[in-house]
Amino acid sequence: MVKPAPRRVTIVDVARHAQVSTTAVSKVLRNAYGASPAMRAKVQQAMTELGYRPHAAARGLRGQTYTIGVMLPELRNLFFADILDGITAQLGDTDYQVLLAPGCNGEKAEARVIDAMIDRSMDGLVLIAPVSARSRLNEVARTVPTVVVGRHGSSPAYDTVTDDDIAGAALVVDHLVSLGHRRIAHIEHHETDRVRLAEMPNAQRARGYRDAMIAHGLEDEIDIASTSYTHDGGHLGARQLLDRPRRPTAIFAGADVVALGALEAVAEAGLTVPGDISVASYDNSALASFGPISLTSVDQDGRQMGVDAARLLVDRITDRQRRTAQVTLSPTLVVRRTTAAVEAAQ
Amino acid sequence: MVKPAPRRVTIVDVARHAQVSTTAVSKVLRNAYGASPAMRAKVQQAMTELGYRPHAAARGLRGQTYTIGVMLPELRNLFFADILDGITAQLGDTDYQVLLAPGCNGEKAEARVIDAMIDRSMDGLVLIAPVSARSRLNEVARTVPTVVVGRHGSSPAYDTVTDDDIAGAALVVDHLVSLGHRRIAHIEHHETDRVRLAEMPNAQRARGYRDAMIAHGLEDEIDIASTSYTHDGGHLGARQLLDRPRRPTAIFAGADVVALGALEAVAEAGLTVPGDISVASYDNSALASFGPISLTSVDQDGRQMGVDAARLLVDRITDRQRRTAQVTLSPTLVVRRTTAAVEAAQ
DNA sequence: GTGAAAGCGCTAACAT
DNA sequence: ATGTTAGCGCTTTCAC
């Protein structure tokens, strides 16, 4: 139907056109030592004249591919988009190109996707909230420079960037307590695996909630609905909490999407927010700031997390022996219209 | 700090371990002709014993990389996530791995990203709502099998999958007219480029709006605010429309996110929806279905678009000479709570 | 400073 | 049916 494109311009074409060796072209390409300014100019001119573009895959067979792989568990979570913005912004000046591996929920899919990235010889990996076993992550990091985002705990093999989820949960509890609330409930993402209980953000948020409640002398008021970080999970969790004999006056949802489900359940129960019950959550995604919803939520500066992750990754590609670093960012609370003084509820 | 991973297992290791030639291993890998069942078994056993995984980049230097590249203009648009789901679902059974190129708004960034995918020798490309010139798309498609999603017009070089945006706009107008509305305004994404006026969905929706209004004898009521498909664009557009001497009784926003901005502007003007004014939009994203918003919106089966795109792409990889196909899907209208009979507004 | 030549892991002609 | 060999486009010794 259509004539195929002409053969690709290669390093050989450039070398011939510039009357030099392929080695010289390669050196110019990599800004490597051993090329005189005169040669550099000659080669560069030939490159532009021929419209040469290096073949990343072929380069990878010996050197680098200039490709960074980013794995995200879920495309629909807008917070991840912020992280990605930070990564691409930080990498914008460099020669690195970012490619994403989409939607890998579950350990098996995650393993497949990570393997796929390694098989495509990416120069570095950013794993966002991975669920794989720690040993597996260490193994991956030994194979290719890796930064893990959004998972607590340190490793000798990979750098980490996390938000201080315990502090974030405390911000919410402090805020609600200062509004006079005592019966503050939490909707968590159910977790059984022991390592994940220590490392996953959801578990840290639940722990932060507990700790903060205890710090305020409210240990008897601790009340947790254990569902999942989804819209339905929020709906279900809120229904459970609203059915309690002593209904909570405030609900702390572990994520914005959970809060949305909770808001629906509250409305269905004929209650108003924040009149009858306050709702706060975590992530401060675009949903939270949207006017009609206007959710009080913990902000995690995802963009900054992405910037840090990219910086750490490039550093590690440069020096694989450097000791691993753990970056922890402090969250802030954005108070909006879903939380109010408890008096209003009585 | 950490000992590097051992050298990768290659086809040579497998061949030696199975006491056969590398060719034999390659044949087994590709299910190619010329390998006896006995040899096949022997090689396969060696592969699993050694934990062999083919090096995609190296394969690509001669044959395929088994990688499909998907370009999306915007990660935050949830509709694109549906398309991606369809693509990955359809490709789930095959050996192809999907990689995404993130956020490339603007022709220049788009060109860079597409080049990057070609330089990484992807086997096929899915371009979602690209803004590049038609000639450029044709050139890309001559280089690598390509399917274009969400852009009207046919090409001899690439297959297309689109939603019938003209029909979708007509669904909205028909619905509003049936509710008694006559002063139905539209917020469009401003477009000047001639080709894009014919090919981009936003332009098609505006055209569908005009055509439908005319079909209903309402050509004198045609009223368009020309802003952009963003939250702010919706806000601005709605403010313009609300300031008209004869305020519209219904607004058809070109996208859900536009409708959200419009809803805010309507609320700020002290008007209610759908009491004072009806609002309908396009995309039926998760935002539209969210309870408190509950937006009447046109549903484009994004998932099906992804499935079709992936199918067409694999077909084209198999046979590059096949004639190009154009798949057009029919939208449906999902009526929710932001549209009501016009009597209520008077 | 420059270039010839070997090889990265794999596929595809071409023997046998 | 099986193996030998020559590349794919690039980087990297290692001579000069």
Automatic annotation (TrEMBL), chains A, B:
| UniProt KW keywords | DNA-binding, Transcription, Transcription regulation
Q: Is Transcription regulation among the key words of this record?
A: yes
Indicate what this protein is called per its UniProt record. Answer: LacI family transcriptional regulator
Pfam families assigned? LacI, Peripla_BP_3
Q: Does the keyword Transcription regulation apply?
A: yes
What range(s) does the HTH lacI-type domain occupy?
9-63
The highest taxon in the source lineage is Bacteria
GO terms, molecular function = DNA-binding transcription factor activity; transcription cis-regulatory region binding
